[in-house]
Amino acid sequence: MKQLELLTLISKYLSRFKEQIKILNENGEFSINIHAENVLIKILNIVFDADFENVNYVEGKNYDSIDLRDKKGNLSIQITATSEIKKMKDTLEKYVENGHYKNYKQLKVLVLTGRQEKYSQEAFDKISQPTYAFNGGSDIIDFTTLYVMLNKQNELAKILAVKELLESQFSDVISKTDAYNINSFKDLCLAIYTYLQENGNLFKKFGPNSGADSTGQLRWDLTLWYKVRRERIVPNNRSISDLISEYREIIPEKHVKVFDTFLTHAYAFEKHCEDAGFDYTEHQFPKEIVRIIEDGKTN
After folding, report:
1. Which of 170, 205, 227 is a domain's end point?
2. What pLDDT sits at residue 164?
């Protein structure tokens, strides 16, 4: 497999990982964060040429300001799903207060849900200087940072290793898009349209309401609907999500937000199908995408 194809897969897996964490956290499920630490430790070892260990396991307690530490003493990492500066300042304060800078050359904060675009360097300097130098631009990282670092290192062995690690976690939810010959946004819309159309027809025929606008008579026997959404709608959503992730660069900027909303909806809906107690009301299907796809496939 070509290096570019490997990187594309890595980008896809990391995007799915990020969305999974965001949605579960928003619904009060935080065990995924612990799982993320265990998955990421191997990836971080590769990207940073390190030998990390999970401090919480080694010390037998929830360690302050550090989740992973490099046995070589070069780097320590705090993993969090919170991107706000208060979390960064609290971490840095504890890091300096407890003298961890004496044992590790660097502290990185890895934000699972994506870092903010900017942080106040002055705020960090007030906490750490002159004892320790923390750079809000380069020391607060996320999945995008890891992808960029891996790309810049340009080492096929590393790229392949990261791809294999991520694939072991997400291969069951990533479908193939190789069958499509997509060179334009029109091609992408044509490919997605078939899945959207089928899902719409299935919803009208078997859904809990008699119409797609959810205003019709309520259906009480939902046996077929549960079967259809599990066997047809969820797989269709996966295929649409794969197409969006694979060909993201050809989606016009003005439509990116709507397509991203669909990605979030697709994952949340699948999670709800697996667990009826999972609340996905904040991640409803973006109806605007239907108009965009219908217009796009003809223009």
Report:
1. 170
2. 85
